[in-house]
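[job 0412] stage=fold_complex status=start
inputs:
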Amino acid sequence: MAQLRTRPMVVEASRPMDPCAGCEARPFSVCNAIDIADMDRLSALAVTISVDAGRTFIEEGDVAEFFFNVTSGTAKLFKLLPDGRRQITGFASMGTFLGLAVSSTYAFGAEAVEPMRICRFSRTRLRGVLDAFPAMEKRLLEVASNELVAAQEQMLLLGRKTARERLASFLVSRVTAQIAAPIPAMPHQGTPRVALPMTRSDIADYLGLTIETVSRTLTRFKGERLIDIPNASAIVIRDLALLASLSTGLR
Amino acid sequence: MAQLRTRPMVVEASRPMDPCAGCEARPFSVCNAIDIADMDRLSALAVTISVDAGRTFIEEGDVAEFFFNVTSGTAKLFKLLPDGRRQITGFASMGTFLGLAVSSTYAFGAEAVEPMRICRFSRTRLRGVLDAFPAMEKRLLEVASNELVAAQEQMLLLGRKTARERLASFLVSRVTAQIAAPIPAMPHQGTPRVALPMTRSDIADYLGLTIETVSRTLTRFKGERLIDIPNASAIVIRDLALLASLSTGLR
DNA sequence: CGTGCTTTTGAAAATCATCAAGTATAGTGG
DNA sequence: CCACTATACTTGATGATTTTCAAAAGCACG
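[job 0412] stage=fold_complex status=done
writing structure:
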């Protein structure tokens, strides 16, 4: 399990103008629910933070003092068992809102898998903004509902799919996530290239497998001309349709 | 996979007075967020329905026309793969709110495991109530957040726990759910008795195992004096503390 | 007191995990 | 710029937990 030396988290007292105004993540985040005119109310609470790759910025069980919004980069969200077994419950990228929890402590940890920028809000102070702008609370409910649907899909994967089906599902979801979200996306004319900023170990802990099984299964996919593996952190999808049907057991 | 003959769903045009006034599930449900004085606004939309055991009242993929609130009984929520493999994502009992989904179709199916009474609301009409009472929307966000936490815990179980740990977790969660919720609970002086209205097949599909493994593991627990099995639908917990530590791998 | 279902129990098989090297890859410092 | 080291990834052999296949035992209900 990745463990980098712990460099100090860089906190910038960033308030040049309105940090939210030019925020690239806004179109993809809950912040967008607030009218641009009222945005200052939100940006007054926001503190921009840089997080180095490998840095844990949410510790499971810690008092939940903050909400976070991912501006750039990718984080893995995870839960641990006492003996160190780890389940990654999801990956958070641009626009993802983190910290939803009724309890006073975080129910999961979060660690950057690549350098990140995140927006931090005090939970108590954000509550005031939420009360003032019900549209944002409504947006949060949408976000939570979507995550719930994704979580149920992942339960189906973890509880009932084979290793092959899990990897196929993972690759397909990476493709669709890349299309739906962030960067206008590099043109993919049938052979989309998905970036895998996370390690094989992360993928394994996300899919409930071991790194060896992940590696073997990807190698086998390559042999079957379903994918190409130019390097460990990128995969070229050669037959998305077949992968998609594989992912639901229709081989 | 349980498949009973399909009896017609009984719909009662129930509006004797205010059906919500004497509702036993209200203290445990989102309805409680609304002031008793404003309750008529909600009860005007509510239609009470009886569901026979074995009846599917939410079909995965169907247009999501309604929200539901469970008044009594228990339902299993599930997702299916094309070849029939099933993952039960949760059990819904008194007070559970169902139907959260941004999409226009249900992301999961729901089937009664014992006779139920449920409250049905039109999604479009409930939207008006939610807009009028932000407190209820807020409550829904709390509910969704809690379910998200539970879903993450279940992902940890499905992805990383052994069969023994899964069953131990299941039994412990049944005990705590019984204490926290519904019926003032029968006095349990160290040996709580948990009801299992669902079949072994349901438990298996919930824990990502087969019925055989569920049966074998429970039998082994019995042999180890951790539980008693008076009958197939009830279990007496003889050593909750040991089960609890077993559930996190601390054997 | 059958009849049909669920549950339990047993034996064999299989998928995936574990153990163990060996091979890339990336970052570091000479 | 190139070895050198650390880490990540791949590949192979073996093993174990869990599944699959099969059948008997309980239970509920007519």
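[job 0412] summary: Chain A is about 35% helix and 20% strand.
[job 0412] exit 0
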